[in-house]
Specification:
Chain lengths: 415, 415
């Protein structure tokens, strides 16, 4: 068999695995309980590997917040000292079956969404999505949000889920794509549908009224609560397609605010990186592009499996947040067909005549066409200490795909 | 002032009243408690006035079902006898501030959504939306659905709403239009958002677990539950714009499966009717167009205030139900600008660059352009005894608008 045929076959296998992935929420558990290899005094972060000293401002701010949250430090100064002295271990989420939005910090006591890919049995984890600490803010209020998640909301949801048994996420994802969500920055529909499912579980689990009211208030008022579930789903789906010899399909895109990195199914655990790009976005009042940090977060796992920017044509409601016209948005979704391997059989875009979502990014096609994946994303400040400041669109840097393709040629040149 | 100016001024007033309408759910109460003029042994129905003997099959079936539900008859035969003998009074919903989906039957013990237009203080009522009795089915199962609504779901929701005080519907409507609902046949988003709100009220009202679980199951599983609320909202909004001298704006479109009727703001309570048209639709398995009854229901009150077919361009998810392409749907929404008076300042369509919904149908513009309002609607069987059999698109008959314009000329010819 010629190499080209081997690649086609491998890519077909990769996308078939992605299409047949069945993400199911099976637990909401403290990271320390469930994440393999997560040690005490260790913090996980978004994107490819990076040292504390090379981290961007927002990621440093979030890491300081994470230390305060865990009680490993009492003040930001104390936290910085520990970090500067190398007393806190730092590793990427992706090295532990996990993903995290923006700075992506995960620490042992933080409850995570635990999603199992029922088709293949692998699990993936994602942390809570919130508008402050994950963007680099480490104020008392930012830490309070994490504490409420740890002490009230997550344990209540866990009890409810235990009563429910588990929750299939594919039906929510399918429906949300028909309801104007793109499953990266617009989760209005999926969050509402998810809240309805959990409301039944909460009622059925006989949870005390105070916790019930607080948690119902949280889940029905949180327009992005499903992002954490979509990210864990994306990771569980993409991981099952990883490690197929000869496959040129991308199985991770992740950014740490300094570097943008990709992983490829047939290229093992190596990251192919390039400097994180600038996001072309709209800013919240009081902020301008001069404040904006570079592209950051594991959330591009949604684009990796064909959501986010890839389905933005079906989510015109997001344009007030990220900019652009409905026609441009549809243009992006159509453009992504040029660099992908297949269309999904279940996840469809009604605004584009109900065609399936384009998925299975092929590094060969990206390099050949010079079309890079479009990602819609939130924007963090370039300095530590700020909440979300904007959102916009960004393209994955072509250099990642080029260096991956070179590595691919080297690895498989014997054939 | 010339008559043309008087009309423009009156129409401006009519649409301003529509735009400023603020629908709020204030109660869920048995019709007999709240509907003015609803007597014992009286049934209200959809569309313009019609006698029992001239009713279409589906409406007759639904009326038989309503008698069985009220216990006024024990068998369909007995019901028919009472009706043939004129022992049951029959009047249109629209004559009692009410609207009802499809056959639209409302009887005294049936709980209704009570929506108050807070800007003007007027109230409107709509009944529960379900897939059987309102389409003409009068089986035990169909009646059971009404009984559950009367005995469990509605009283539970009423208790919850009492605890909540009231529920503003405009935020749900606004959000749902950003989420692919057109607020006539697609209510996936609005129903989900509504269920989110009611779940909190149910929890807060300390309702017993059995009723809680049954009602949460009902509201989270009913994709069209918000249609009744949208219809009551539409009626409350349109009624406030009715009765303005010189206004050529349509304030009601309603069908009884035999006749299609409209009312016009400046033309009092007169109905301008034409034979109900055939719906161009898709049929559920086992049915064909040969089974389909003619256009039926008060639900075109949604199009009257600028929703439904008028915003179908923003609701591509509905096309699998009613047929057509996303481009055609956007075309309909754009076309409706030609026959309307204004665009709404709050209700917007993200898929059309976030322009406001077109509203305030002007009978002059309809007649001048020969463009008639587009309505997307469900389809009932032509014979009594069937559930929903399909859905599709239909145009309001031009004759209604022509005869209204003639009446308008007569009424205001002295000027």
């Amino acid at each position: 068999m010629e190499i080209k045929q081997k690649i086609e076959k491998a890519n077909e296998e990769a996308v078939q695995r992605m299409i047949s992935g069945l993400p199911v929420l099976v637990d909401i558990a403290p990271a320390g309980e469930v994440v393999p290899g997560l040690e005490d005094r260790m913090i996980m972060h978004s994107g490819p590997p990076i040292e504390w000293k090379k981290m961007c401002g927002a990621q440093r701010g979030a890491i300081i917040g994470a230390l305060l949250f865990e009680g490993w430090a009492k003040t930001p100064k104390e936290a910085e000292k520990l970090l500067n002295n190398g007393e806190i271990k730092i590793e990427p989420n992706h090295h532990h079956q996990a993903v995290g939005p923006m700075a992506g910090t995960i620490t042992p006591s933080m409850p995570l969404w635990v999603v199992e890919n029922k088709t293949f049995g692998n699990r993936a984890f994602c942390r809570q999505v919130e508008p402050k600490q994950q963007f680099g803010e480490f104020s008392e209020e930012a830490i309070k949000g994490l504490e409420l998640w740890r002490d009230i909301w997550a344990p209540t949801l866990r009890q409810a889920l235990n009563k429910m048994g588990e929750l299939e996420l594919a039906p929510i994802i399918t429906k949300a794509l028909q309801m104007g969500d793109e499953l990266h920055n617009r989760h209005t529909a999926s969050s509402s549908l998810f809240a309805n499912e959990m409301a039944k579980g909460i009622a059925d689990a006989d949870i005390p009224k105070k916790e019930t009211m607080m948690t119902l208030g949280y889940i029905t008022g949180h327009n992005l609560i499903f992002l954490g579930l979509a990210m864990a789903s994306g990771k569980a789906i993409a991981d099952a397609a990883h490690g197929i010899d000869y496959s040129t399909v991308v199985t991770a895109m992740a950014r740490n605010g300094t570097d943008f990195g990709i992983r490829v199914s047939g290229l093992g655990d190596e990251w192919f990186t390039a400097p994180a790009p600038v996001v072309d976005g709209l800013y919240l009042p009081g902020y301008t592009s001069a404040d904006g940090g570079l592209d950051m977060g594991d959330s591009a796992i949604t684009e990796t499996v064909g959501w986010g920017g890839f389905v933005i044509g079906g989510a015109p409601g997001i344009l007030s947040l990220v900019g652009g016209t409905p026609e441009e948005a549809i243009g992006y979704s159509k453009e992504m067909r040029n660099i992908t391997t297949a269309t999904h059989s279940t996840y469809r875009m009604p605004g584009l005549g109900s065609i399936g979502t384009s998925m299975g990014i092929d590094i060969r096609k990206v390099v050949q066409t010079n079309i890079t994946p479009i990602i819609d994303t939130a924007i963090a400040h370039q300095d530590p200490g700020y909440p979300i400041i904007g959102a916009g669109l960004v393209r994955a840097p072509i250099e990642c795909f080029k260096s991956a393709l070179i590595a691919f040629s080297k690895k498989y040149s014997g054939d």
